[in-house]
Amino acid sequence: MARIARNNQEEIKNCFIALLNRPWVTKADDPELYQSIRSHYQELRDWFQEYCGFSLLLTRQLARLEKFPGQAHAWMGLELFSDPLDYALFTYCLWYLEGKNETDQFLLTEMIEEIKNHLIGSQVSLDFTMYHHRQSMYRALKQLKALKVLVAVDGDEAEWARVGNDKNVLYECSPLSRYVLRHFPQDLTTYQTPTSLGELAYPDDQEGQVRRRRHRVYRRLLQEPVVHDWEWSQDERYYVLTQRHTILEHLSARFGLEGQRYREGLIFFYPDHSAEIELFPTAKNISDLVLLLAGEIRRLLDQSDTGIYTDERGRIPLTLAELEGLLLRLRERHKSLWSQQLRQAKSNELAQEILAHLTDWGLATVNSEQIILLNPALGRWNGNYLTDEDEE
């Protein structure tokens, strides 16, 4: 009986993790997981609604958790997109698909023409003879195909993006197109700021304020790599401090997250690798460099007269020149183990790439004057290369 109970808990945990990290779970692509979610639907729905304010949708085709961040960050965008126009065209493609039935077929040029005509009424001009506009449309179409919202029957949009209207693509509409965009509790025109789009409607009483605080705390802890104490509001920080045992218990039981209270905040990590979750360090070379940098910082903090120090919040301020100097020393020390691209990269380019990776993972912030390494999280890492003696 104990083994059955453990297996059941592991099954529920897999459902929690998949719903949090996937756009959706479809019956066609993962029937076993879909059936597990269906079997535990009430428990999953109630927990996500109670602690995150997320709604769980279950149809005969899919299970979808309607997620939105506790606090939006630039790295939360779609990785494939690089321009605001990409998002706009992605949305207007979904608008076009709303008028299509399942398995309806249509040409790319037909969709483009209808979107262009629709936008003329809004004084928005699209010109797909321009390479920039075609590239944005290409990225939007590629993302829709990756989500399996759009199915290419014949042709390739990459060719259309390269040469223009001389090429065409035949598409088929997927029933998933109706589940991409979030359903808002009120008309979009009533929202005054982008930030308000991420808020639910709460009663204006004590119970409503308690729910708002709880939802925001759990959303941020589940969706951000790390949240330090100074990043919370006073009210939220009080909740994290007083409810930490409950938070640790919930996130461990539902998601397998291991957490610990440090001076600077409540820090969580996954003890086991999972294909469902993108974790740090990633498989990219840039993560290896961040680990090397973290180890170098730790060594310098233990030495005197290095100019490297932590402030009262455990943060390490650096100038861009200081960061470049650290990276140059690491390259000189380990250049035989670095790729040719990394060996030949300019110090400024390497520093900017490192900074982008650090900020994406909540390990640093950058302002106009300096770089702030967030040592409470970064300091948990220490990277170095194994030598032949180490392996022996």
Summarize the entry for a quick read:
The chain has 392 residues and is mostly helical.
Report what the structure shows:
This is TIGR02678 family protein. Pfam families: DUF2398. It comes from Desulfotomaculum nigrificans (strain DSM 14880 / VKM B-2319 / CO-1-SRB) (Desulfotomaculum carboxydivorans). It is a single chain. 48% of the residues lie in helices and 11% in strands. It is mainly alpha-helical and 392 residues long. The chain has four domains: 2-66; 75-179; 194-269, no CATH class; 285-386, Arc Repressor Mutant, subunit A, CATH 1.10.10. The protein is globular. The two termini are 45 Å apart.
Keywords:
single chain; 392 residues; mainly alpha; three-stranded antiparallel beta sheet; 16 helices; 11 strands; globular; CHP02678; TIGR02678 family protein
Give the CA-CA distance, first to last residue.
45 Å
Report the principal-axis shape. globular
Rg, rounded, reads: 24 Å
Q: Can you tell me the number of structural domains?
A: 4
* Order of helical and strand elements: HEHHEEHEHHEHEHHHEEHEHHHEEHH
> What structural category arises from helix and sheet content?
mainly alpha
Unreliable parts: none
SS element count, helices: 16
Mean pLDDT across all residues, rounded?
A: 87
Strand content of the residues, in percent?
Answer: 5-15%
Order of strands, main sheet, comes to 1-3-2
- The share of residues in helices is 40-55%
